[in-house]
Write a structure and sequence with these properties.
single chain; alpha+beta; 6 helices; disordered N terminus
C-alpha cells in the first residue's frame, strides 16, 4: 500500500508511492499540465478537448486550495515523478455527494509517462487513501468501452466490471458505450497483499 502522509483530510500533505508523489497542484505545474491537457490523444476519451492558459491557471489555483474528500468536489492529485520531479499527470477522486461512502476515480497521464505503470501506481494509492483515510465503502470508475488502456488499468487494479451501458453518454458528437468498474473496501486488501 502507498504510504499516506496525512493526519486528516484537512491537513493533507501528499501520498507517497515507490515512484510518485501525489500532491496538490502548484503554479509551477502550469506548462506541463497544459501540454498533456492539450494533447489530442490524451483528450480523446476525456470530457474536454483542450485548455487555455487562463483556464489551466484557474484550475491549478482552485485545486491548490481544495482538499480531498469533500463530497461533490473532484480533487486532482498531481502525480510528480520522484526521479526528476516531472509532472506525469493527475489522478482524481470524487466522493459522491448523494452517497458519501462511495467514491469515483479518474486519471490522466502525459504520453511520455503512459505504458509505464505510473497511472496504475497512482490509482492504487488514491484508492488506498479513499478506503484508509476517507473510510469509503466503495470506489467506482467509468470508461468509454473503446479506451482499452483504461479498461486494462482497472482490471490490473482488481476492480470488477459491474456494468456495460449501451449508448450511455453523448460524447463528442456521438453516443458511446461505457463500462463501470468497482471495488469494495473489504475486497481491496486481498487484492493487494504484495
Amino acid at each position: 500500500m502507498a504510504r499516506v502522509s496525512v493526519v486528516s483530510t484537512r491537513t493533507f500533505i501528499n501520498l507517497d508511492t515507490p515512484r510518485l508523489i501525489l500532491r496538490r497542484f502548484r503554479d509551477t505545474d502550469l506548462v506541463s499540465f497544459m501540454a498533456y491537457r492539450n494533447d489530442r490523444e490524451v483528450a480523446r476519451y476525456q470530457s474536454w478537448e483542450s485548455i487555455s492558459s487562463a483556464e489551466a491557471a484557474k484550475f491549478i489555483a482552485q485545486q491548490s486550495r481544495h482538499r480531498p474528500g469533500i463530497p461533490g468536489k473532484w480533487f486532482q492529485f498531481a502525480a510528480e515523478v520522484k526521479a526528476g520531479g516531472a509532472l506525469a499527470g493527475d489522478c482524481a477522486l470524487l466522493v459522491i455527494k448523494t452517497t458519501p461512502r462511495i467514491g469515483e476515480i479518474g486519471y490522466t497521464f502525459a504520453p511520455a509517462f503512459q505504458h509505464s505503470g505510473l497511472a496504475t501506481e497512482a490509482a492504487r494509492a488514491v484508492i488506498d487513501f479513499a478506503f484508509a483515510s476517507l473510510e469509503l465503502n466503495r470506489v467506482i470508475a467509468t470508461t468509454d468501452c473503446r479506451n482499452a488502456p483504461s479498461v486494462a488499468l482497472m482490471e490490473r487494479l482488481g476492480m470488477r466490471r459491474e456494468g456495460h451501458f449501451i449508448h450511455n453518454a453523448w460524447f463528442k458528437g456521438e453516443w458511446c458505450d461505457e463500462y463501470q468498474y468497482a471495488v469494495l473496501r473489504e475486497q481491496w486488501p486481498r487484492l493487494h497483499l504484495s
